[in-house]
Amino acid sequence: QRRPGSAGDAFDLLCSIFRERSADSADRRELLTSLDPGVRAHLRSCLGLVSDPDHGLAPVKCLKSASQRVLGTTQHHTVFVCEDPLRPVLLMSPRIKATTSILFLHGLFQSSTMVEQLATELLRELPHTRFIAPTAPSRSSVLGHGPSWCEDGRTECQQSALHDSRVELLHVIRQEMSIGIAPDRVVLAGFAEGGNLATWIALQAPRKYAGLLLLSTAGHTGPQLGAKWPGAPQLQVLRCHGGLDTLVSDEAAKSNSKELRALGCDVKHAHFNEAGHGVCVGMLQEIRAWLHECLPHAVGAQDVRVGVSTQAQPSTRPAV
Questions:
Q1: What CATH fold (topology level) applies to the domain 65-295?
Q2: pLDDT of residue 222
Q3: What is the SS3 assignment for the chain?
Q4: What local confidence, expressed as pLDDT, does residue 226 receive?
Q5: Domain range summary for the chain, segments of one domain joined by +
């Protein structure tokens, strides 16, 4: 016999929402708010409750809001900023003064809530690093409806989405600059589709970023912008790819690594025979070692313990 509030009851209620295409009761609306943003976006699309695309609240505006859920580790405050329930932002902020940042972009139909465990693992030995993972706007594609930065930027509509996403994320990077973290102290990271956008942002940068981390991604460079990619020369790139990845072929990943090397990037292509479309333990070890090289603790930085805040504070350093 099922108890009220059990997983079985929630499943039955979810089925009834799909079957009747209605969320007009309090318990149904409560269930919707508890779903992952990607699932919720798809369900709202099925119910005809949302326009396409649903841009929602930009990440930098979410970070300035007061709506948050604070958890924590021994080295980092963990905050989910949920001002827009469809576009939560994960922020892991060090308990000492931050001197470096990682901006992580999730994959297609995923969200920031799915990368909390990965962030915790990567930051174990990086007590001075901020980790920011925004959630993409919800869009429709041939695969369905849900959070998506873009697809591959090859059509005019996709190019527009790619541009809009890039602008949003550049605002986040500028916020990091406002607290004294220069672009050369920021690693751009992306999983699958998120890696495509991270690649495009990094290559266009007028100043080189600390590094580019690509996980299970083909790393498309988006629309062609001419022969020069100012952010490419000597950009440190780590690509981790699984030999059993059935969504992004090994050939596509190797081809993009070759392309990035031709542009002047310093690419390390780490292949994991037994890994699929995801992150394995071996990848975590490889990434941690690489991050230590890209994001060393700033020389002379003081380990001043700080309180949790989602907002960037003005810096006394000169503008960069």
A1: Rossmann fold (3.40.50)
A2: 57
A3: CCCCCCHHHHHHHHHHHHHHCCCCCHHHHHHHHHCCHHHHHHHHHHCCCCCCCECCCCHHHHHCCCCEEECCCCCEEEEEECCCCCCCEEEEEECECCCEEEEEECCCCCCHHHHHHHHHHHCCCCCCEEEEECCCCEEEECCEEEECCCCCCCCHHHHHHHHHHHHHHHHHHHHHHHCCCCHHHEEEEEECHHHHHHHHHHHHCCCCCCEEEEECCCCCCCCCCCCCCCCCCCCEEEEEEECCCCCCCHHHHHHHHHHHHHCCCEEEEEEECCCCCCCCHHHHHHHHHHHHHHCCCCCCCCCCECCCCCCCCCCCCCCC
A4: 47
A5: 10-47, 65-295
